[in-house]
Amino acid sequence: MACREWLMFALVMVGTVSVEARPGQKGKIPILGWNTWCTQNTCGVDWCTSSEVLDVAAEIKANGMQALGYDHINLDDCWGERNNVTGQIMGDPIRFPEGMPAFIQKLHDMGFKFGLYTDIGPNGCHHPFTGSFPLYAQDAATFKEWNVDYIKFDGCDLPRGYTAEELTCNMSQALLDTGDDFWFNFHCWHTETCAKCGTSFRVGPDHHDNWESTSGIIDLLQTRQDFWGADPDYGWPDPDFIYTGGQGCNSTDPGPNHGNPGPSPPGKRCPGQTDDEYVSEYSIWALAGGEIIVSSDPRNMSDLQKKLWLNEEVIAMYQDVSGFRDVKMVGNGSAEFLTDASCGLQKQLSAHSCEVGKTFGCFAENQSMWTSDGCRGVFNCDGVSSVVCDQMDSTWAMCKCVPGKIPPSPKSSQSPQVWVRPTSDGGAAVALFNGNDLMNASMTVQFADVPTRGWSTSTKLDVRNMWEKESMGSATGSFTVMVRPHFTILLKLTPAQEA
Fold this sequence. Notes:
Blueprint: H1 3-11, E1 31-35, H2 50-62, H3 65-68, E2 70-74, E3 80-82, E4 89-91, H4 100-109, E5 113-119, H5 136-146, E6 150-154, H6 164-177, E7 183-187, H7 193-197, E8 200-202, H8 211-221, E9 236-238, H9 275-288, E10 291-294, H10 303-309, H11 312-319, E11 328-331, E12 343-348, E13 360-363, E14 368-372, E15 377-381, E16 384-389, E17 396-400, E18 416-422, E19 428-434, E20 441-446, E21 460-465, E22 470-476, E23 478-483, E24 488-495
Parallel strand pairs: 1-2, 1-10, 2-5, 5-6, 6-7, 7-8, 8-9
Antiparallel strand pairs: 3-4, 11-18, 12-15, 13-14, 14-17, 15-16, 18-19, 19-24, 20-23, 21-22, 21-24
Helix pairs in contact: 5-6, 8-9, 9-11
């Protein structure tokens, strides 16, 4: 069939369909894996070849990642072409000379599951790589024939006259119609249909290797949706890739047809975040997210990568789905309350605590007030409201009791946050995340804030630092620790063992 004829035939085969419930075992627990996207290049300049991917897979198998659950090897927008005569999707013959079925079989023989990228439109986000429109059923049948396990369905090049929801669910149905149990991942339009049509779905825009992007995704994970959770009733929220240690360093397309040098050497990374920020990224993804796909090079692993990626305690928490639907961010450090009419706090602006009589107060009938020890905020003072006393880096400050312009509230990710997640052993995981840019924060988890536990101010719990794999003793009612800027301390709380 000529190219024009098969295209016109396929166009009339795409239409609105209802989607069946997703069958099978995929989606029971969130997955871990690796993706090619930023491994040997900066993000957005994807590079993948059979030899690179097999080399990375061999390293993941050898370094212990696979044994801990990193069992997905996924290609991003770097592999697919369309045969101009048959319309069949195929791998780039230069990058994958053995052909896709043989390449995929090599990964399966190593014990991995295999995932690949396609797009809602006729082209991928990075042309000349192909998308699947209008050949959804044909490509789904090909993916079944190749024994593909995971499909990433991107949202570029949306065909005119269709909605993303309509076409995404059409592709979902095409995959279901093959009879295979695919993991289906896509950009979500934030309704319960996302869970009906897929296994996991993005909570927001692409995640990039910089703090602004990471903190923005953390903000999005706070808005918990009723349709987030384990298949078949729900679906997993995907925060997008994790970049521990940094993306690759080459910023130009190193493809064989471009005459440019090849990609960065294996294991060379150019980090866009600090080590503390990478700790926060992995911590919140693991506690509050539903997909962990690393997109940094695992070859020649750094000490940080080993510490974060090979931590069996954190991975066990991530895969313990019993408390996932009870994940909550229970405090953000921006307290708003009044103490009394003469001297009170309207809005705290600092990470440091503001307590009347301790770190702020008003001079009697003097129309002035004081702050100390890093307290900054908006106050009531001698009957005057909206008094801004906001002197940075000051151990002691005095302010006149006159109304001021109240600063806008920061993004919630710029304030300290306490995240909690019940666990199946009767305990809970807690992330103490300090999103403040400048100051350390004294952070407290109140045990009574953990859902479903019935803990109170008299509850005694053992406290363990999961990243450091060490006990932090026992505490009653609450636990407080100092957290530096952009860092997260990840705790495990369990009922105290009496001596």
